[in-house]
Amino acid sequence: MNKKIYLHIGFGKTGTTSIQEALYDNRLFLAEQGVFYPDVGDKAHGHHGLARLGEQSLADDVIDDLRCILHEFEVGSYNRLVLSSENFCFLKEEYIRQLAELIPSENTVVIFYVRKQRELIQSTYLEWQKVGSDYLGTIDNFFNRHKRSFLFTTRLKNWKNFFPSSDFIVHLYHREIFEDVIGDFCSVIGASLNDKSILNHFNESIIPEFSALISTIDALGVNSATRKVLIQGLLELSKEFKKCSAKNIISDELESKIYKYYEKDNIVFSREHLNRHSSQLLTGVDKR
After folding, report:
1. Which of 15, 69, 157, 195 has CA atoms 20 to 30 A from the CA of 242?
2. How does pLDDT run along the chain (288 residues), one tens digit per residue?
3. Can you give the pTM of this predicted structure?
């Protein structure tokens, strides 16, 4: 039997949470189709425990968990294994090298979703505001500190080096390419889901209109319990007004900086990984 391993490595803010929750909820339905989506006890339903950010190498328990997963996949009646975490694309070089020693490159397909950096940066900034990470005050500061994180060739470099025999499938997360990222992902792995179970799967987001308010809340120094209540209220309002949200917290000046910083890298990346239409969407200038 020709068994394949699908490694979904990111990028965050391209529907990863929706994909992971839908796959997790459909584990039994997928198993009937020969797809193994392991439950490793991660509350977020992804396999983030196998992709520990900041660590230089695999811990013993990660090695044990991965070996157990691979053994169950090998001896079971499955023909496809899916592991998913947006953390994978941010792992250290040695960490990825050690993963490659356990996961056979020739049987592996690496799945990577990308998105226009302007959208990614704003969405990630709002996510960090939501969860209370250090978003550095302004989105300009956030970009200046983290801009290298959004270079797609950098994110794939070590994966391509250590998984040389693997297939790499890269899709642009854009409404002109597909409207349903879960459906798109399922088409890649050759599986289907129970339609009823994939409704309302999404990572709740703060709309840009509330960004300044969150900054004010944090500047006031409210305690964590109060902040949690306030953020939950803003999430409810964001859900209510999402369809009419039109605010862009990225200034024209910052947008120009973003475009210029990623322009050359996006061209190189697009030529290697994207079709013509997706390339034009990624490398083109947005019309507001």
Report:
1. 195
2. 589 999 999 999 999 999 999 999 999 999 999 999 999 866 679 999 999 999 999 999 999 999 999 999 999 999 999 999 999 999 999 999 999 999 999 999 999 999 999 999 999 999 999 999 999 999 999 999 999 999 999 999 999 999 999 999 999 999 999 999 999 999 999 999 986 555 555 678 999 999 999 999 999 999 999 999 999 999 999 999 998 998 899 999 999 999 999 999 999 999 999 999 999 999 986 654
3. 0.95
Q: What is the DSSP letter of 152?
A: H
Q: Looking up tokens 């088409």, which residue turns up?
A: 187
Q: What's the residue count for the chain?
A: 288
Calculate the CA dihedral of residues 161, 166, 167, 170 and round it to 10 degrees: -40
**Sequential DSSP letters for 218-281:** HHHT--HHHHHHHHHHHHHHHHHHGGG-----S-HHHHHHHHHHHHHHHHHHHHHH--HHHHHH
Whole-angstrom CA distances from 266 to 12, 54, 270 are 17, 26, 6
Got the DSSP string for 164-214? TTSEEEEEE--TTT-S-HHHHHHHHHT----GGGGTT-------GGGHHHH
Nearest to 87 by CA among 26, 134, 46: 46
Question: In the chain, what is the straight-line distance between the N-terminal and C-terminal CA atoms, in Å?
Answer: 51
Provide the CATH topology of domain 4-117+150-202+263-283. Answer: Rossmann fold (3.40.50)
Task: Output DSSP code: residue 13.
Answer: T
Separation in Å, CA 66 to CA 22, 79, 99, 101, 278: 22, 17, 9, 11, 34
